[in-house]
Amino acid sequence: MAFTPRLLGRIMLLFIAGLIAELALLVWLGGRIGFWPTAGLVVGTAVLGSALAQREGLSLLNRFRSRMASGEMPGAELTDGLIILVSGALLVVPGVLTDVVGLFGLLPPSRALIRQALARRFQRGIAARTHVAMWTPPAQEAERPEPDDVVDAVFEDVPPR
Predict the structure, then answer these.
(1) What phi and psi, each to the nearest 5 degrees, are found at residue 149?
(2) Are 102 and 111 in contact (CB under 8 A)?
């Protein structure tokens, strides 16, 4: 994924909209339940989220190690690690919306949904790039050898002298 000016503009717009929504929700919540309960809620979710992120991270590390020890590729564990890292960072940021999104990423069932959505998105991107990369302009197609052009060869291992 290339960071084009258009993509960076969208990310910046999303960031600013998120900050405004977060601030509006905190002001609204503070008006409804008061400043100290709101502050306690933000600090409490950060502490709870940090503990949950640590627990999920250690569990993930154990699954990663067992996958590697058995000779398997830990693809899902790597994706889960990224989701846990981003979710933990969101929980440290003060706010209610970021805490909800962060907690959503730390819970195993919802993390599986995020992983599946990411996998579908990456597969679509890879399929689009592969389709473009495999296309050959018509002028170059004539230069390709025909499938009937077979070259037989005999190879022999020669030890070094």
Answers:
(1) -75, 95
(2) no
Dist CA 83 CA 106 (whole Å): 8
Contact 53, 91 (CB under 8 A): yes
Taking alpha carbons only, the member of 87, 80, 140 closest to residue 112 is 80
Taking the chain, what is the end-to-end CA distance rounded to the nearest angstrom?
50
**Phi, psi at 73, each rounded to 5°:** -85, 125
pLDDT at 103 over 70: yes
More confident residue, 112 or 124: 112
State the Cα–Cα distance between residues 8 and 86, nearest whole angstrom: 19
The answer to whether residue 139 scores a pLDDT higher than 80 is no
Tell which residue, 87, 79, 78, has the closest CA to residue 121.
Answer: 79
Say if CB 18 and CB 101 are below 8 A apart: no
Handedness of CA 60, 61, 62, 64 (dihedral sign): positive
Whether the per-residue pLDDT at 143 is higher than 60: the answer is no
